[in-house]
Amino acid sequence: MKAILLAAGRGSRLGTATDTHPKCYVSLHGRPLVRWQIEALTAAGIGEIAVVRGYLADFWDRQELPVSRFFTNDRWQQTNMVASLACADDWLAAAPCVVSYTDIVYSPGSVRRLMAAPGDIAITYDPNWLSLWSRRFADPLDDAETFRVDARGRLVEIGARPKSLAEVEGQYMGLLRLTPAGWRTVTDYLGGLPAAEADRLDMTGLLSRLLSRGVEIQAVPIADPWCEVDQPSDLTVAERIFSPAGGIVGR
After folding, report:
1. Does residue 250 lie within any of the structural domains?
2. Does the pLDDT value for residue 251 go beyond 70?
3. 193 within domain boundaries
4. Is residue 247 assigned to a domain?
5. Which of 18, 25, 31, 147 is deepest in the core (most CB within 10 A)?
């Protein structure tokens, strides 16, 4: 199986930390986030990894990474994450791919569980999200999205603004897996949208719209600790979760 790292955006919420390098080169325990992702994917058995770049695209040419291919979203400033994903169309159409955000850190076990999930579209989620969000935000609902699954582990709702904790059964982690058939489902939907609307579409928005069309999406609960680095204070949280050697300290 292959993997695609989505690294086109700047990460403006990190302020000056991304002035000279892409967001995924923010350092955690002396190593850029992208190194943590590549190591987890490789340890899980991923054979080839591609990067979709955009902001400071030339930066990647100076790095030594075990990356098989680069795709470039030249319109990264005018588009969102789904448009970046579409830049890797030929990989997605040819073989199953794990797709990863590049502002997250996770375990190889999380990747393996996602790889083994049934269905053509699958995502990982954290059912114990409140513990992590309470460390990141004064009010966890300020940055949470609705998330519900059914008794068979299929996603039934994602991406809306929750009014209460009861509407949030977990949080999407930024890891998904698509088979070629799953990607065709996505491209068929995107092909029916006006170009400007497709450009603005983010990942949870896409997943929500697919659900409304009856598309089945498998939701895989993850018990391993993980983290997201979206603002400077998230790095402090991440440092307490993951050890400098790459091991997990705790939630």
Report:
1. no
2. no
3. yes
4. no
5. 147
Q: Both tokens of residue 245?
A: 């050697």
Q: Cβ neighbours of residue 190 under 8 Å, at least 6 residues apart?
A: 82, 86, 198, 201
Separation CA 189–CA 198 (nearest Å): 10
Is 246 among the domain residues?
no
Q: What CATH number should be reported for the domain holding residue 45?
A: 3.90.550.10
Residues 6+ apart with CB under 8 A from 225: 107, 241, 242, 248, 249, 250, 251
Over residues 25-45, the pLDDT tens digits come to 999 999 999 999 999 999 999
The pLDDT tens digits for 58-69 are 999 999 999 999
Higher pLDDT, 143 or 17: 143
Domain limits for position 13: 2-241
What percent of the chain clears pLDDT 90, i.e. is strictly above it?
Answer: 94
Residue 176 has which token pair?
Answer: 């998904």
Q: Number of folded domains in the chain? A: 1
Buried (b) or exposed (e) across 2-34, using 16+ Cβ within 10 A? bbbbbbbbbbeebeebbeebbbbbbebeeebbb
Return the amino acid letter for 59: F
User: The pTM is what?
Assistant: 0.96
Q: Which two tokens stand for residue 177?
A: 């897996």
The residue type found at 13 is R
